[in-house]
Amino acid sequence: xxxxxxxxxxxxxxxxxxxxxxxxxxxxxxxxxxxxxxxxxxxxxxxxxxxxxxxxxxxxxxxxxxxxxxxxxxxxxxxxxxxxxxxxxxxxxxxxxxxxxxxxxxxxxxxxxxxxxxxxxxxxxxxxxxxxxxxxxxxxxxxxxxxxxxxxxxxxxxxxxxxxxxxxxxxxxxxxxxxxxxxxxxxxxxxxxxxxxxxxxxxxxxxxxxxxxxxxxxxxxxxxxxxxxxxxxxxxxxxxxxxxxxxxxxxxxxxxxxxxxxxxxxxxxxxxxxxxxxxxxxxxxxxxxxxxxxxxxxxxxxxxxxxxxxxxxxxxxxxxxxxxxxxxxxxxxxxxxxxxxxxxxxx
Length: 347
Ligand SMILES: [Zn+2]
What we know:
- This protein is of the alpha/beta class.
- It has one domain (44-99, 145-342): 3-Layer(aba) Sandwich (Rossmann fold).
- It has 12 helices and 11 strands.
- The strands form 2 sheets. The chain has an 8-stranded mixed beta sheet with strand order 4-7-6-5-8-9-11-10.
- α2 (56-67) packs across α11.
- Zinc ion (ZN) binds at residues 11, 13-14, 16, 27, 29, 31.
């Protein structure tokens, strides 16, 4: 997969073009980044504040939660938004690129790998239409949609989105190498990179059709730079009633009222051109609750032992159907942001 993605990357140190040389990404300036055994590449440069990346245990628990399908309606909504904004794939030959290097043999290998991996992404997997046209489209030089997930975690949302898009490649960025290791295997059309989304992204200007940002840092200026002029950013944030009544019962802080304004500020230069609410109910056990609280706003992060105790008390008060689960509401806001000059404001 990396061979198909390298043309969109730039050197994180000097911003020059990079090429894949065996198992190493190299720029003309002599900077080199090895492809890890697990298939990802660390493009992290400089230092970052300690404790900002998810640990192996956090990543494993999160993967388990997502694989269980608790957030499937959200993943499907993100995928649908991505699909709606990758219409450009049907417009032939808009970009002069080096895709000519994808000769027939590479394409066959690429396609074979995709079939072999079976597009598996758990419960959100859906039918993909027109797969047979993909190879033909690529062979005649049609544009392949590029989907960037900034703060991709395990790549769960990106993989679901790729399954909804006819063709398209995914670039997963996360500051946690544990997350990126998983993202590298999440889908045959994903390339995964360790990078800090707060820093300049190692991505060429104007190549992304869609940037996905699910509960992740929003680097508005960089999103703007890497996005095509007709591209879109899909931003998901928790809504006010997210995890009610859990939040109240566990004595956690509610989602801060300033959130909406903070989202708008971070996306300066964009116009919000679409917005929808995604709400559904979940039945969560103790482990799920620990996980879902950890996935929420950092304000919820609290002393682990204390939280554990509060969850146990809450479950014993509310145990339903003798399965020791509690009904919990999920509520998100999904917003579409498009580069401002071409965009219409929300009616
Ligand atoms: Zn360089």
